[in-house]
Amino acid sequence: MDISKFISGTFIKQIAYKSFSPVKIHQTWEISDAQLNTLLSEANRYLGELNGLSQVIPDIDFFITMHILKEATKSSKIEGTQTSIEEALLKKEELNPEKRNDWQEVHNYIESMNQAIEQLNTLPLSNRLLRNTHTTLLQGVRGEYKMPGEFRISQNWIGGATLADASFIPPHHQEVPELMSDLEIFLNDDDLLTPHLIKIGIAHYQFETIHPFLDGNGRIGRLLITLYLVSKKLLNKPTLYLSDFFEQNRQLYYDNLSVVRSQNNLLQWLRFFLVGVIETSQKAIQTFKEIIKLREKIEKQDILTLGRKIQNAQKLVLQMYKTPFMNIAEIAECLKCSEETANILAKNFVKLGILKETTGYKRNRIFVFEQYVQIFTKN
Questions:
Q1: Domains of the chain, with CATH numbers?
Q2: What is the C-alpha to C-alpha distance for residues 283 and 243, in angstroms, rounded to an integer?
Q3: To 5 degrees, how large is the angle CA 178–CA 183–CA 189?
Q4: Pairing between strand 366-368 and 325-327?
Q5: Residue-level pLDDT at 245
């Protein structure tokens, strides 16, 4: 089907409301729109550049930890949590009690992403994998009693306090299994002559329209994008996350999904989606370039002034790419040394401008790798 001729579905009368029944998407999609083709070409170019860069950076997995953490805070923020990147880097007990629930939701997202990436080694991108991921996402947080890991067996809605004033009512729950089966087949049918970025753009719209779970659909749907790109080897590492783009353009994100259902305008959604891929890829590329520049300065200039402490300094810097907030006990544990030795090295790092002490205390001090964290908050 030509994307420009897409018909999204129909509204079906239920007892006291109308639910939206989307058409199935398992078919080959053709692109006759010149603007969409241009955006697709540009998105593929930047995605390829990002993937190539991620393969030549040593110890890339240390940096990906921060990428996933940023994605978790942004995706959760769309759903109403207020945890910042800096707060997410702290331990739960180091936060004020009123912030701990939001912190837990962010860390559930991180665990969900890591678990899903790992399961892609043994499972296809399937409904089973998505249900497993959903179980982890809702464990011990708001929504933990809303059928974690199971597709809904009741009607849900988006916006409004009840079905009567909802802004959108997804398909009736009896349609969910068949629609999700169609989505799963579509994602895994490699014989379809549809470009991957178009395919996952359509799949994300369809998932959000089906809204198969009682809670957590937004986060799972956004996570689905990265999982698809990894599963199809467009990304060797999970380095692209669109939640920051969606969060910064939140109303446009919702409006462009809505206009597909109300006006059959799939083209407009896909244009918006590809712009998101382009801008997010560009930011991720810039982030990696700044990390390389910072790493060269620290490892080839700063710590070379530390003489006999160089080996411990190199080990600590590497760890702080993964955990940029650390206390003296954690530094000592990382280096397998005494807290006295750890304290001396931390002081050296503060003098060099690598670390900054954040508490102002004489004891229980927490040090942050501030320049590194700022790369992610800025980009």
A1: 3-288 (1.10.3290.10), 301-378 (1.10.10.10)
A2: 13
A3: 120
A4: antiparallel
A5: 95
Structure tokens at 260: 């597909």
Cα Rg, the chain, nearest whole Å:
23
Tokens of 41: 């070409």
Which is nearest to 116 in space by CA: 138, 131, 104? 131
Residue 88 · residue 198 · CB < 8 Å: no
pTM (predicted TM-score) = 0.93
The residue assigned the tokens 């004020």 is 96
Would the pLDDT of 67 be above 90? no
Residue 38 identity (one-letter amino acid): T
Cα–Cα nearest to 254, from 212, 214, 221, 280: 221
Task: Please answer whether residues 228 and 195 qualify as being in contact, where contact means their C-beta atoms are separated by less than 8 angstroms.
Answer: no
Positive/negative CA dihedral, 127, 131, 137, 141 = positive
- Residue-wise pLDDT for 222-272, tens only, equals 999 999 999 999 999 999 999 999 999 999 999 999 999 999 999 999 999
Q: Give the neighbor-by-neighbor strand order of the sheet with 356-357.
A: 325-327, 366-368, 356-357
Any alpha helices (H) in the chain, and if so which ranges? Answer: 34-56, 60-78, 85-88, 100-119, 127-137, 176-188, 196-210, 217-231, 243-248, 250-263, 266-300, 310-322, 328-335, 339-352, 370-378
Evaluate whether 54 touches 236 at the Cβ level (below 8 Å). yes
DSSP-derived secondary structure letter, 124: -
Is residue 344 helix, strand or coil? helix
Residue 6: other Cβ atoms inside 10 A: 19
Rounded to whole angstroms, what are the CA distances from 88 to 62, 73, 74, 99, 219? 16, 7, 11, 10, 17
User: Is the distance from CB of 145 to CB of 215 less than 8 angstroms?
Assistant: no
Q: What is the pLDDT of residue 293?
A: 94
**Token pair in block for residue 334:** 């990382």
CA distance 92 to 329: 17
Residue 103 Cα distances to 142, 184, 217, 269, 322, angstroms: 12, 31, 19, 31, 18
Q: Which residue has the tokens 């920051």?
A: 244
DSSP 366: E
Burial 313-340 (b: 16+ CB within 10 A, else e): bebbbebbbeebbbbbebbbebbeeeee
**Structure token pair of residue 379:** 């980009």
The whole-angstrom separation of Cα 364 and Cα 342 is 13
